[in-house]
Every structure is written in C-alpha cells, then in structure tokens.
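Good morning N.,

You mentioned wanting to compare the apo and holo forms, so I went ahead and generated the holo version with zinc ion. This is what I fed in:
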Amino acid sequence: MKYSTSTGRLEVQRTDCVVTTRAGARALAERRRVGDYLDQALADFDDKPGKTTMVPLGKRGTIKRVLVVGSNAKLSIADFRKAMQAAASALRNAALRDAVLALDAFTVDGYDAEQKTRVALAIFSNVLYRFKAPRRDEETATTIARVAVRTDGRSPAAARRAIRTAQALDDGMSWARDMANLPPNVCNPSYLARQARAYARKAGLRCRVLEEAEMERLGMGAFMSVTRGSDTPGKLIIVEYRGGKRGDKPIAMIGKGITFDTGGISLKPGAAMDEMKFDMCGAASVLGCLRAAVEARLPVNLLAIVAAAENMPSGNASRPGDVVKTLSGQTVEILNTDAEGRLVLCDAITYAERYEPRVVIDVATLTGACVVALGAPASGLFANDDALAKQLQDAGDYIGDRAWRMPVWDDYQAALKSNFADMANIGGREAGAITAACFLSRFAKGLKWAHLDVAGSAYTSGASKGASGRPVPLLFQFLLDAA
Ligand code: BES
Ligand code: MN
Ligand code: ZN
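and this is what came out, ligand included:
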C-alpha cells in the first residue's frame, strides 16, 4: 500500500472512491451537485459505527464512488476502530485502485489528526494487504494500491509525519507477511538469510549470518540439536540498525524462525500440519519491525536476531532423552523434540548478550497452550521487568495489536526439573505457555527481557489462512515510544 496526504478541496479529487461520513457525503453532494445519486442512499443509511454503504456517482465526475462510513458526532476510540475496520473491509471487497480517506470528517474523542491517522492506517494496512500467490487470476485482479489521507490541515507537518510512520509500518508488516505466507519449500532458513542480507544491503545496514559450523564451534548445542535433523542448514541471522547515538545500547529483538515444524521425532499429528510453515512468524516480525524502524528513521539502535532452522525427523535428528549443552553452559534433557522453539531461542538469547543489549525481546510462535489461553485477540506477554512489560502492553493497546501479561513466577520453574540435566525442555501438562517462558527466563538472568508468545496471534487458520503481521505493530510502536 502507498499512503500519501491529500490537500485541496474534496470535490475536485480524482479518485475511484472518497471515504467519508454521512455528513461529509452530504456536503460533497451539495458541492458536486450529485445529489440525485446520493440523497436516497444517505436517507436510508443506518449511520452507526460498523455500517457502510458504497454509492456510485455515475460516469461524469472525477469521483467515481463515495463510501459512506457509519459514525457518531463524536466517536470513542473503540467505535472509530470499528468504523475504520468496516471501511477497510468495504474497500477490500470493491474492485478499485485508490481511495481518498477524509479523516477530517471523523471526530474521535481524545485523538488528534496524527493519532487518528496512525490508528486508521494500521487498520487499513492490516485489512488491505494481499499476498501475491502464484495463480493466474492474481495477475489481473484489481486491487487497491493507494490511499490518500485528508486531515484538517491545521498541522501539515504532523500529518506528513503520521503518513510516513504509517507507511513504514505498512512496509515492514507486508514484508513480514509475505515471508510468512510463502510455502516452506521456498521460505527456508537460507531464504530468510537472503532476504535479510538483501534488505540490509539496500538500507546500508550491517548483516551477519552464522553458519552451522560456526554455531557448532561456539557451542550452541541447543540450536544444533534442532537443525541437525534437516537437510536444509540452519542459520543465525543478525541485522544491526544504528539509528541512535553511538554509545547507546541496542534493543535486541530475537525471532523464532522455524521455517517448518514437523515436531521432529516427537512427530506432530497430520491435521493442519501445513500451518507449521508459520512457525517462523516471530522471525518475520522481528525483521519487519527492523524495516519499519529503518524506514521511519527512528533514532534507536536495534538488533534483529533470527534463529532460523527446520525441525525435521530423520536418521540424524535428536531423540527424546538426548542431553545437550547450551551456549550458556547449562544442559538440557530433550524430552520432546517438538518443544524446539525454546531450544533455538535459548542459544540466541545467550548470543545476544555479547551486544550488551538494553533490553531483549524474543518473539515466537512458541506454544499451543498460549493459543488455548488467549486465542487470537492477545499475544502472550512474559517479562522479568515490570516497566518493560508495561511499555509493550501500552504500545499494543495504542496501535490495536494487544498483548496480555502472564506470570513467570518461580513457582512454575519446578516443572522443568530433570534427573539427567540442569533442566528438561518441557514442563507437564499444566501451564504450558508459562513453563516455556520459564525455560527461556533461565537464559535471560542478567538481562531486561520480555517474551511474546504469538502462536495464537501471528496467523489465522481455515478459510482466511494467512499471516497477520502481528506483532510488528506492537514492536514498532514500542520503538516509537522508546525513541
Ligand atoms: N510451534 C509449536 C507451537 C504452536 C502450536 C504454534 C500450535 C502454533 C500453533 C511449538 O514448537 C510446539 O510444538 N510446542 C509444543 C510444546 C510441547 C511439546 C511442550 C506444543 O505447544 O504442543
Ligand atoms: Mn514444535
Ligand atoms: Zn515450533
């Protein structure tokens, strides 16, 4: 999606669609003398948040349609989100190429033009994204590619800033979704490394890719235990963005990049196993957030680390009962090879320590238990630092990509006890998302650390199967607030 600001009078716009309120449409009708078309539609319209109606204006004018969006005189932020969601859905379902969004027609309680723009365009980006699947009809489809936003014109600099920020988020999120939606025979660890390298080169960032031999040499026994079963080599990808001050410690974001999770020798059941191509959504979101930060030129130092591997069963795969030594020196008894995410992440967290990060945030489709606990509306949020947890939660609330905090109390650590190593890689049946976080916390002892379990939020199943791009909005907003 390409966003821009729109100035000049609404009635002289040249566009496939103007998006406005009922009052806005009335005013437009008077000035354009297109009343015949609009009057009846506006009279019949049920003017409530969540309702919309698309009214064609005939062939003569420069505006082809008006999308009337249900509203109140003064909208609560929740109703505004609902209205924008409905507007974006209506645009998605219509065959048009561009739209002018008259945000100046909407009054939102407590939100200025800049904030309205941020919230509305985050929703537009989410709804209007399309994946270019390798299908014939994809080439000829009419899809909306440009949205211009009209604001009240009182602070044009703020309006442009909001657009630039929204564009950065859209670009980062679309990239993340594209990578995640690709099939696992294309998007493997090498593909992720190539994508990261190519972007780093384009943006002038430093990128390092650790190969298996190097990781073996360093002593990343946990990471290696996961990747060893696959013929496709694992990679540890590190991209550095230095937008902040020279001496400022970086924020490190670590993504789980299992490009396909079969479960390994602890093989998963067949049903919906295809969805395990999304087990690299954490990795995609970390790269997507990096890109958004770069394009918004945020004054922060950011480190994106991707632990990329494939979890496969083979004659060389890890067995339940294997004991491995992590980069931290702690040993792990692998009781279930399907609990592989924490194994690649623990070594990546230890590796991140050498950059002396200000905070470490890992993002992972880590547990089915988190899906059971929170479903799609909230990502699971875990942290060993209250201030960091609050910053992440607030960022998500603001931009509409929510997370909900869960405990990492010591009471849960006992579940990881092993008779043969420092810890087992799984707890019992209870509190699975928490015991997974507890496992990771043992590798984040001296760090300010947070963990986002996005197993329920990073993608949708069934008819609308696809990556959501979450939690890129949350992470990016967190950086904006931190900058
Ligand atoms: N990638 C899965 C978690 C997952 C499950 C993500 C469902 C999205 C939807 C992870 O690697 C996994 O298999 N976790 C196991 C852990 C268990 C063996 C302790 C799980 O959740 O079942
Ligand atoms: Mn697994
Ligand atoms: Zn997994």
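The longest strand covers residues 251-261.

Happy to go through it together on a call whenever suits you.

Best,
F.
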